[in-house]
Amino acid sequence: QQQVKQSPQSLIVQKGGISIINCAYENTAFDYFPWYQQFPGKGPALLIAIRPDVSEKKEGRFTISFNKSAKQFSLHIMDSQPGDSATYFCAASISTSYGKLTFGQGTILTVHP
Amino acid sequence: NAGVTQTPKFQVLKTGQSMTLQCAQDMNHNSMYWYRQDPGMGLRLIYYSASEGTTDKGEVPNGYNVSRLNKREFSLRLESAAPSQTSVYFCASSEGGGRETQYFGPGTRLLVL
User: pLDDT of A38-84, one tens digit each?
Assistant: First the structure.
C-alpha cells in the first residue's frame, strides 16, 4: 500500500526547460513534505522541504507547490540543467512520529544538453 | 567529517546465509534509520532508532533485526537471507525526529542468490 504516489516514473527535458514532478498522498496527518535528490551510486540528499501551512517554497531554481485540499504537492525545476539529471523522491512524514519518512516511487530525470 | 558511512559497499550471499550491515555516523545525531531501495518502490523504512537504546519497526521489518550499539552505530542483521532481500540498503541519521533533515550513507548493494 503506497501512501505517497509519485509521477511520472521518468522524465526527459531539454536544457533550459521546466521539469515538473507530482506527488499525491493519502494520510491527512502528514505535516512535512521533503524532496530528496539521488545521483547514481550515491545516497539521497535533501533538496527542499515544505510544511502544509505554506502553499509554495522556492530555493533557487527549485520550487515546491503544495495543495492541501487536493492532497498533492509538486516539484518544479526551472531552467533545467544536465547536472540536474538524477532520481528525485518525494516523501512525507508526521512530525511527531520520530522522522519516519514515507517515500514516493521516484522519478528519473534526464536533462539533455 | 565523514558523515554516514556504511560497510560493506557490496555483498553477495547465498540463500540462508547471514550477515550484518554496519552503519556509523559522526554527526552526534540521536536518530538513525535503515531503508531498502528497490526499483519502482522508492525507499522503504525497515527499522529506526529514535535515540540510543531504542529501536522500533518500520514499514518492512520482516526478516531483519537491528542493534543500536551506541550513539554512533546502528547495524542491520539478516539472519537467513532470501532472494527477496536483494536490494540496496541505506542507513540515515538525523539530529532528532520530526522535521529534521535525514543524512544518508552511500548504500550497500546486496545480492542474494
Answer: 999 999 999 999 998 999 999 999 999 999 999 999 999 999 999 99
Closest-CA residue to B100 (of A89, A74, A93, A54): A93
Note whether B8 contacts A: Cβ–Cβ < 8 A: no
**Residue from A98, A103, A107, A108 whose CB has the most chain B CBs within 10 Å, to mutate:** A98
Residue bearing cell 522541504: A49
Pairwise CA distance, residues B27 & A1, whole Å: 34
The DSSP string of A69-103 is: TTTEEEEEESS--GGG-EEEEEEEB-TTTTT--EE
A77, A61 in Cβ contact below 8 A? yes
To the nearest whole Å, the CA of B50 is away from the closest chain A CA by 6
Cβ-defined contact of A105 to B42 (cutoff 8 Å): yes
For residue B100, the one-letter residue type is: E
CB-CB neighbors (< 8 A) of B58 in chain A? 100
Q: 3-state class of B8 per DSSP?
A: coil
What is the per-residue pLDDT across B14-58, written as a single tens digit (0 to 9) for each? 999 999 999 999 999 999 999 999 988 899 999 999 999 999 999
Which chain A residues are Cβ-neighbours of B107 within 8 angstroms? 41-43
Across chain B, the runs of DSSP E, i.e. the strands, are: 4-7, 10-13, 19-25, 31-38, 42-49, 56-57, 64-68, 74-78, 87-94, 103-104, 108-112
For testing contact with chain A, the best of B43, B47, B103 (most A CBs within 10 A): B43
